[in-house]
Write a structure and sequence with these properties.
Blueprint lengths: L10 E2 H11 L4 E4 L6 H9 L5 E4 L3 H15 L3 E5 L3 H16 L3 E7 L15 H5 L9 E4 L6 H13 L5 E7 H4 L2 E2 L16 H13 L3 E5 L6 H14 L3 E4 L13 E5 L5 H9 L2 E5 L23 E5 L13 E4 L5 H5 L11 H12 L11 H11 L5 E4 L4 H8 L5 H4 L3 E2 L9 H11 L5 E6 H7 L3 H6 L9 E7 L4 H10 L14 H7 L3 E5 L2 H13 L4 E6 L11 H12 L1
Parallel strand pairs: 2-3, 2-4, 4-5, 5-7, 6-7, 9-10, 9-12, 10-11, 12-13, 13-14, 15-16, 15-17, 17-18, 18-20, 19-20
Antiparallel strand pairs: 1-8
Helix pairs in contact: 1-2, 1-6, 3-4, 3-16, 10-22, 13-14, 13-21
Length: 575
């Protein structure tokens, strides 16, 4: 509870800011220190028993960690950076949070008020830079000029980040404001309001379901809870509806469930694509139906699908934004159970469609062997040896396709979020996300799969993990670097469009094993499929975080024999 103003002693606004964060349940802030928020850094020291400042090696990685924290907790992750270069570096994490609908708050030190609008040292107008809007980087950008209003701005930032479609908020904090005195009390914990759909529209939805013979559900997005995931699973079972998970939201629905049909994203299983096209009713639950999930807006025809579309989404602005739904239902995912309560089938439904869809999914888990390093076998070995509840992370690159296809994610209703992956396609995300996951849940193992190009964008954060003891508790921290000496995805497209004209995609890499050991990590090199299982077993027993360096021939992830290229070719045949 907040205290009346008369009961709060005057203190630095930087201290009041930290108290406001603590009042919002924040116990960890990621960032890179800067002279523009020294008073706030002193506040972290003052309240070090209640909140920690995790000093990272790059603002982009700090923002990734905060975004991962927001995904795992459902409340805003917090990142604190300095003005100018600090904010521009952190913008990649803000973009990921926006496209992934993750609650995030970026706090940015700002130049003093008497220096504004002179292009002072590192000065940027953050309202212009992060400009909120349909295609902006943030939901809201504010600048606090009065220390007495600081708690108000913090509470508004948390509410804005969580309500409706979750997303990032940016607060600029002038350094002279942070060093002034205020007696303003922290405001109480913000609990977001949840949207519930119109009961009449829900009944119209039920009538569509009754008359549908081939419904299909695509689930994803943010805001899900263990209870809401359980409620939706029960609803799908009642109606015998096959369920696919949107691009990089594969942990919303249990992949081992008898109704699970696969991931609806890049390189979609051709059988699944055909099933979606031939459906006579599509349920989009929590998803935006963006480019990756819809195959460039072609898997489901835009703007008017050939079959009726029922779209559940927390943000009113998303309903009808691209796709015109037959029924639009504004509904927070935390409230999906209440929305679907009573939506029961009048008669038992046939389980045939769900069984066939799941059989097609299981068939897609089989693949021809690839030597000398078979990433399908690698992923399956990780799954077999990693403990229940392990968190899997990745950035961007062809290597991630093996993880998305061959790993079976458990539903968040059983273990919490187990997939951290940027739908925005940001490279460098996996390593900081895994570190953040292990710092948040030291008892849970975090496993990052990273390409060689991907890893070196944020690999310096191994030092951050070492500094904070990540991977040394019950939960392990493992990074698997898939090294083919190339920006593999771009090289694949290059070979397709400009064959034999390689330009800008070859990489010269360090010895990743020696690099990891220099950071105090256990590390091993793996050169053949048969070596991996034993190496990963040692990682699970190590008393330090572990990096496994997998050496691949260049053509394993760039030629037409790659997972992605194979699936693209199969999809073209299916069409």
């Amino acid at each position: 509870m907040s205290q009346p103003a008369s009961a709060v002693p005057a203190r630095l606004a930087g201290h009041a800011l930290v108290e406001a964060l603590v009042a919002q349940g924040v116990d960890t802030v990621f960032g890179v220190p800067g002279e523009s928020f020294l008073a706030a850094l002193d506040g972290f020291h003052e309240h070090r028993e209640r909140i920690r400042f995790v000093a990272c090696r790059h603002e982009g990685a700090a923002a990734f960690m905060a975004e991962a924290h927001g995904k795992l907790t459902g409340r805003p992750g917090v990142c604190f950076v300095t003005r100018g270069p600090g904010a521009t570096n952190a913008s990649i994490g803000v973009h990921v949070a926006f496209q992934d609908s993750t609650p995030l708050i970026l706090l940015v030190g700002q130049v003093a008020a008497d220096q504004r609008d002179r292009e002072a040292f590192q000065e940027i107008d953050y309202r212009q830079m992060f400009g909120p809007g349909t295609l902006g980087l943030a939901k809201w950008v504010g600048e606090v000029h009065s220390a007495d209003r600081l708690p108000e701005y913090v509470a508004r930032a948390f509410r804005t980040a969580m309500q409706g479609r979750p997303g990032p908020v940016v607060l600029a904090l002038p350094e002279d404001m942070l060093s002034t005195s205020t007696a303003a009390p922290a405001l109480p914990l913000v609990v977001p309001a949840h949207a519930h759909p119109d009961p009449q529209a829900v009944e119209q939805f039920r009538q569509l379901l009754i008359h549908s013979q081939r419904p299909f559900a695509i689930v994803g997005g943010s805001g899900w809870t263990a209870d809401s995931a359980c409620d939706f699973e029960r609803f799908a079972e009642d109606w015998e509806i096959p369920v696919g998970c949107a691009f990089r939201f594969q942990d919303v629905f249990d992949n081992r469930h008898r109704l699970y049909a696969g991931d609806v994203g890049i390189g979609i299983n051709p059988a699944l694509a055909r099933r979606i096209r031939e459906s006579d009713l599509i349920l989009a639950v929590g998803v935006r139906l963006g480019e990756m999930t819809t195959g460039g807006y072609t898997l489901i025809e835009a703007p008017t699908p050939r079959q009726p579309l029922v779209h559940f989404h927390a943000g009113a602005e998303e309903l009808g934004r691209v796709y015109q739904p037959a029924i639009a239902l504004q509904c927070s995912m935390a409230a999906i159970g209440c929305a679907l309560e009573g939506v029961d089938p009048p008669t038992p439904r046939s389980p045939v469609a769900g069984a066939l869809a799941h059989a097609e999914y299981l068939a897609n888990l089989e693949a021809a062997p690839v030597e000398p390093m078979d990433l399908a076998v690698v992923v399956k070995a990780i799954e077999a040896l990693a403990p229940a509840g392990a968190v899997y992370t990745n950035g961007a690159g062809n290597y991630a396709g093996w993880l998305h296809r061959f790993h079976q994610y458990v539903s968040l209703q059983r273990e919490g979020r187990t997939q951290l992956a940027p739908t925005a396609g940001a490279m460098g995300y996996g390593v900081p996300a895994a570190i953040a996951a292990n710092l948040l849940f030291p008892h849970r193992t975090a496993i990052a799969i990273a390409g060689d190009g991907d890893f070196l964008m944020t690999g310096q954060e191994l030092a951050t993990a070492t500094a904070h003891g990540a991977g040394r508790g019950a939960g392990k921290l493992v990074i698997v670097v898939v090294d083919n000496g190339s920006y593999g995805t771009i090289r694949m497209h290059q070979e397709r469009d400009y064959p034999a004209r390689v330009s800008g995609t070859s990489l010269t890499n360090p010895d990743f094993v020696q690099l990891a050991r220099a950071y105090g990590w256990h590390a091993e090199r793996v050169e053949a499929t048969g070596q991996f299982e034993a190496a990963f077993g040692r990682a699970m027993r190590a008393d330090a975080p572990t990096l496994l360096h997998l050496l691949l021939p260049e053509d394993v992830s760039t030629s037409r024999t790659t997972l992605t290229a194979l699936r693209e070719a199969a999809l073209r045949r299916a069409n």
